[in-house]
Amino acid sequence: MAHGMRTGPHGGYARGGGGGRRDTAQRYALLPLRLFLGITFVYAALDKLTDSAFFHASGTGSIGGQMHAVRDSSAIPQLVDLALKSPTGFGYAIALGELAVGIGTLLGVLARLAAVGGALISLSLWLTISWAAEPYYLGNDLAYLMAWLPLILAGAPYWSVDALIEERRRGRLPGRGR
Fold this sequence. Notes:
Layout: H1 21-27, H2 31-49, H3 63-70, H4 77-85, H5 87-107, H6 111-128, H7 140-154, H8 161-172
């Protein structure tokens, strides 16, 4: 039996589809993931930016203290050593990166680039902070890394600034009237 694109009354996602519930669900399937990741990254950034202890080079709750604690159990200790050269700078880089990724993801501004940034942050945290989690699935950074992949592939085609820009671009092309 050959498998191909469906030609029945339910238009497929790849073809722009009809208006049924199934098509709507497929069209907006990534929206909950986008909202979750965007809100989570904005929250994580604000949590860091408002915590006076976080940006210190040492002490309870500090980025420096966290880096010293995981240095020997991380997958790539050289990444931790690099962060330890300037724990405050690294802390601000992570916090501001999370904020940019979260806002970009929520608004759908350069959504694929934001997703790549989120994946890179998650990858670096997995290879350093949560690498030693046992069993591995208890370390949430790996799950976040995997969650970013669909958004890297699909971007934010609905309810986003990227989608608005694309609609305007298409509306101005010759031969494509409104």
